[in-house]
Write a structure and sequence with these properties.
The protein is mainly beta and 138 residues long. It has one domain. Strands 4-3-2-9-8-7-6 form a seven-stranded antiparallel β-sheet, covered by helices on one side. A three-stranded antiparallel β-sheet has the order 10-11-12, with no helix packed on it. β8 and β9 form a beta hairpin.
Length: 138
């Protein structure tokens, strides 16, 4: 089991604007209102290396909204430990992590609209992030 899966078991994510996959790949992300999705996926990074230097740099997460995908799992959005933080995630039907995106300045996500394979997550500040639920890098 990888580092991100161990963190997810206790509902924690690293405090970094990033996309995390359960199999271990991690990518920096940036909010960008100039692109249709509202989010840019940037360069990959080594999560284990980052957390080795500061293992306490994590935030507790708590869900505020969910969309049940049946046998395909669950979409989940919510908040971090601080008021400005938000996260979005896709889980398996057993509630195990597939991927998660943590954002330090989005505010909590409290709405999800699903259209086909694209989910639009909306924060309490009105920020919208749209992702392909099968591969949010697209």
């Amino acid at each position: 089991m990888g580092m991100i899966e161990r963190l997810w078991e206790v509902f924690r994510l690293p405090i970094r604007d990033a996309l995390y996959f359960a199999e271990g790949d991690s990518y920096d992300v940036a909010l960008d209102l100039g692109v249709p999705s509202g989010l840019k996926v940037l360069a990959p990074f080594d999560l284990d290396e980052i957390l080795e230097s500061d293992p306490s740099w994590v935030s507790s997460v708590d869900g505020l909204v969910a969309v049940d995908l049946g046998s395909r799992g669950l979409l989940w959005g919510g908040e971090g430990s601080y008021g400005s933080e938000g996260f979005i995630a896709r889980l398996t039907s057993e509630r195990k992590l597939i991927w998660a995106i943590f954002l330090m300045e989005s505010n909590p996500f409290d709405r999800i609209h699903l259209s086909g394979n694209v989910a639009t997550f909306t924060s309490t500040a009105g920020l919208e992030v749209a992702v392909d639920i099968d591969d949010p890098r697209l």
